[in-house]
Amino acid sequence: MTDIEKTLENKSVRPTAMRILIYKYLAEKDSAVALTDIENAFEKAERTTLYRTLKTFEEKGIVHQIDDGTNISKFALCEPGCNCEIDQDLHLHFHCTHCDKTVCLTEHKIPHINLPSGYIAEDVNLVIKGICDTCSKH
């Protein structure tokens, strides 16, 4: 059994061939990817299969969805041990306005924010926009 298969099974996801391929694809990326990026990488796969795989991965805490302000949802693998809980697993995201990449800055955690009484947080997303380290060197 491969590491990917173990990871999927540990999250109660059956490791089908397509799920393994999508996980591997995401693991090889250094930035978050859109559904269209995945569709282009797997041209022969059904769009609904790809979408359902991403949704399953998101529900099981394998990937997280990033809203970087471009109106295109992007997906990135969660770091080991992440369970995407608002109080402990949230990190910054950086969107480069030059190359259009969005990256997870997992080492920079979002601190817990105490909301006023009666407010209930359902999602937190902090995106910093600017020029990434690669683009700033050019």
From TrEMBL:
Its cofactor is Zn(2+). It comes from the Bacteria. GO terms for molecular function: DNA-binding transcription factor activity; transcription cis-regulatory region binding; zinc ion binding. One of its GO terms (biological process) is regulation of secondary metabolite biosynthetic process. Keywords: Metal-binding, Zinc. Zn(2+) binds at residues 96, 99, 132, 135. Binds 1 zinc ion per subunit. This is Fur family transcriptional regulator, ferric uptake regulator. It comes from Maribacter orientalis.
